[in-house]
């Protein structure tokens, strides 16, 4: 082997050593993944899921007085939470980082409809049905938290009559009680009639109905239809009455990955709406509106445009609204999303990502969800929720929370003489469903094949060079022949044109002269072409 062959062989190996690639993934908004002026962000985007709740909080006045007609204001706070998964963190994949001059690379990335990662280099089946039981352990959680309003100073009993329900509010509560009793009674009657219909229809299937049973079944169905309409009407009337003494707020929480502390206090305008159900002195009954919240509307209209009413601020008389402050205190709700299992040293929900420059583990980021609990309570202290034996003050719902889990990475580095592949599928909650990694050939085998291929290339170089010289000569020969063929074809066309012109103008003598001249020129070119062909042989 000559020096040139040795250089070629070594060069092929040296160049191969510089062909290491890796899957480049970074958090969206870092480095080259930030908008720079009018430039677009680089990479393919995918998201990691986080659990989010549709929260509904309904506060309802349920009591004004105790058995001795002393002021005893009680509110029922109904909390409902429906969890679902949304995109919490966003990452971008720079697929070009996998490619190089000696690599053939493909990347297939799929996402769910909500934008979370579904699969990479794999065909993923629909996992929606499989995660229904994994998303929520207690479906839609609902709980009622009963709380009282502390009217008096700390450690003192409230002063009777200082703040109490207005007469109109008391009348509404009485109507609510009567309507609830009517609804309960009608519902019981409907249940009994429905049981009768079910029993008689079972006998009818067996052809065991007597004449009296058939009459009873017809009457029971008529009664069932009538009671069903009555229950619907009474339930609608009850909902209308409850709207007078209650407010409902809906919110979505958490809004971002790192949020674990919930503040579910009511909006100031809703607290004022409920405050308008009460009066300070008997003379204040004249200022109450026909509907609950009328005074709220009047109070809000006194504020500057766009300025919300603030509880506890001084009113027109220069006095602090102490009662509204006490209402707001009694309405306080705090919550926390906490893991049920101890996680690794990395803090839950951490968004501190490894620096790609100092961390070789570059690849696909994901989080495996862990069991967690959303705890909402009315009484909050530095120790968290306090629950006594008198009233339930805590609401709990168990979920699987991806954002509380440590961040993990699936590295993919394609090194020298390495031909590997990675494929994975993920459930909608972010957990890993399937995973496959394979190195399609051992590096030693690939290296030996590379050296052998390089040696073959060196041995084939001389033959290729000789073939190249021969092809150059043949190409020049063919170029000369092509040029002569083109001239001959051009003269043939000129001869045909001369004949056509003669037919049109009627000059046969001129045509004969021109045709003879062209024939002589064509004969000369054909002779030259024959000489070129003989030289090529």
UniProtKB/TrEMBL annotation:
PROSITE patterns in the record: PROKAR_LIPOPROTEIN
Low complexity: compositionally biased ranges: 285-299
Compositional bias per record (Polar residues), positions renumbered to this chain: 343-353
TM ranges: none
Region (Disordered): 281-319, 339-361
Signal peptide: 1-16
Assigned keywords, A-Z: Coiled coil, Signal
Residue ranges the record marks as coiled coil: 166-203, 474-537
Protein name: Lipoprotein
Organism expressing this protein natively: Ectopseudomonas oleovorans (Pseudomonas oleovorans)
